Amino acid sequence: MCAKLRHGLALLLGLLLFAWAPGALAWIETSVRSDLVTVEVARDGTAVVTHELIMRVRGGPLKSFELAGVDGDAEVLPNASVTNTRAGAGVSDSTPLLIEKSEDGSLKIEIDNEKGLRRGRYLFRFAYKTNLVGRDLITAKGAGVELRWVGPRLESGVDSAKVVFRLPRAAKPPHVPDVQSPSAGIGMSEEFDGVFLSNLSREGEIDVLEVVRPHVAKGEPVVWRVQADAGAFDAFSQEAGAEEPVLVEAQGPHGLPRAALWAGAALAALLYALLVALKARAVSLACTAREARARVLLPLPAPLRGALAGIILGAAVVVGVLLDQPTGFGVLLVLSMLCASHLTPRLSQVIRGPGSWRGLEPRWLRADSSEASLPGRFLDTGRLPGFFTFVLLLGAFGAVAVLVFKRSPYFGMMVAMGSASLLPIFCTGRAGELPPDPVARPRRLLRYLIKKLAKRRGVDARLVGRFPEGSEVPDELRLEVLPRRGLRGLRAIEVGLEYHQTGTGPVGMPCVIVRVQDESAAYSALPRSVVWTRGRDEDERVTILRPKLPTYSMTLALVERLLVVLAARKRRPAPGAPKSVRVNQAPVPHAA
Fold first, then answer.
1. Least confident residue range of 45-59, 61-75, 145-159, 234-248
2. Rounded Cα–Cα distance for residues 580 and 592 (Å)
3. How many other CB atoms are found less than 10 A from the CB of residue 530?
4. Is the predicted pLDDT of residue 244 greater than 80, yes or no?
5. How far is the C-alpha of 13 from the C-alpha of 560, rounded, in Å?
6. CA distance linking residue 415 with residue 55, whole number of Å
7. Which of 498, 499, 479, 497 has the alpha carbon at shortest distance from 562?
């Protein structure tokens, strides 16, 4: 009975708590993902500010929110709407917005839908009109004017804020001022702290300046500044109107002198043409020394190819700087690089003439770089002088890009991209892609094997070289190894390199050559799977063995294994056979 009473009281208490519980409050979380603002300024100083604000909504429903920090004289324009940005959303998904300006200067934005906005990403579009001249946000400064506009304060902050200024076209294009320059006022850099990136384009009678702030903190009122020509606005154009034709003639984009830009483009074309021609001559001489044929990506004579590469690079500078076309600059830069690029040289089909193998002195194993004597070492990253030259030039490009970037991020990025023109000069047509020197390439391997085999007893190793007829200089080196007590028919165990052509050039792989007499004990000692071919005479048989991995240690292990297999063993007496005993017999004396 007591248990039933307790359960009943608990149930009654639960019902009372449920009946007294207040209505659940909706949970809403919003965050601004991006804010794109277009400020279109007319010649009289009035402007239309258009916001395209992307907001992420969690929970909901969201029925209204406030945007603080808008222009004080804002006149809201009609046709404001919100659209769901989800994939497949169409025009029918847009919802009207009701916007009202509050006394504190903020905008109250209300969704004209009883259901509000649920979870998702939404694009809010709205615009208002303001007078920048009337509020002294366009003021004279030096020879031009300065335009100031303060963005709204976002409660959640934003990772990327972008403002597009559309201004009347004038003689001097607009640009973002450098707040660290000496011309900036005291405290100016603190007031406009932050990093601003800009990009300028000209569309007919309009100058379009895109300014990006990478990060905006919570509640931060960002001040956007633009310096423009006084002739862009009626209130300031009377003072600078007479100088406009002269400025248009003398200056190019971003206020740079046109004569200096043309001279820079011509100088870049000339230097690049000379570099391409020098590189082509060096590669041709190096290929001749190694009996190879030089190949280029564009099959044209070297002088014509160098001139074409220089002209295209100069055209890229003109298109990128004078015409403000970054895409055209990139395309022409790639074309100039293709004109300067070399392919892997092709080995000339030269049949080696007769020669003889002779023993060589250890001095032939002394390290001397055959690549050092080849021309073009300062234009090859595979060699030390060329590597340091390449790094030095890259550092120069980087330093210039950083200096230019402070004044114009667009030009700074172009200088950084221009450093790619060094790649075909220093990274193609390298000496490492040439056919290897058969005398210099195997020296390290042979020195390693001689040092290791010197510790092994009963082994003779000597350096041999092949001498063409009529020459006292060998054209190939090998190491000849033999056990002192070898099997019958063993003639030589030779270690050398064989070369395989790859996409990056020839690669030398170690190999072991075994020479034996046909049908001899040495011939039968190796496995039947070994493939034999005819050697230097009718009775000689030759096989080529390769280590499992082309390393020095694996090659040494293969040679040591062959020395064990092909070495003659001492005969042991059969078990139970009588031992041969040598007896010294004394002379038997004669009987008396």
1. 234-248
2. 35
3. 13
4. no
5. 93
6. 37
7. 479
Mean pLDDT (whole number) for 139-149: 85
153: pLDDT strictly greater than 90: no
- Would the pLDDT of 60 be above 90? no
Average pLDDT of span 59-85 = 85
SS3 assignment, position 523? helix
How far apart (Å, rounded) are the C-alpha atoms in residues 267 and 114? 67
Best CA proximity match to 280, nearest among 412, 424, 437 = 424
Residues shown for the chain: 592
Cβ neighbours for 304, distance < 8 A, ≥ 6 positions apart = none
β-pairing verdict for 490-502 and 476-483: antiparallel
What is the rounded average pLDDT of the residues 169-198? 62
Bridge-based pairing state of the strands 459-468 and 107-111: unpaired
What is the rounded distance in angstroms from the CA atom of residue 398 to the CA atom of residue 383? 22
The 10s digit of each residue's pLDDT in 425-458 is 999 988 888 877 788 888 889 999 999 998 888 8
3-class SS letters over 471-518: CCCCCEEEEEEEECCECCCEEEEEEEEEEEEECCEEEEEEEEEEEEEC
d(CA 393, CA 504): 24
Cα–Cα distance between 195 and 119 in angstroms, integer? 33
Q: How confident is the model at residue 118 (pLDDT cuts 50, 70, 90)?
A: confident
Any idea what DSSP says for residue 242? G
At residue 278, what are phi and psi to the nearest 5 degrees? -65, -40
DSSP string, 92-140: GG-EEEEEEE-TTS-EEEEESSTT-B-SEEEEEEEEEEEETTTTT-EEE
**468: Cα separation from own chain's centroid:** 47
| CB neighbourhood size of 450 (10 A) | 17
Average pLDDT, the chain: 80
Parallel, antiparallel or unpaired: strands 161-168 and 28-41: parallel
CA distance 396 to 78: 54
The pTM score is 0.49
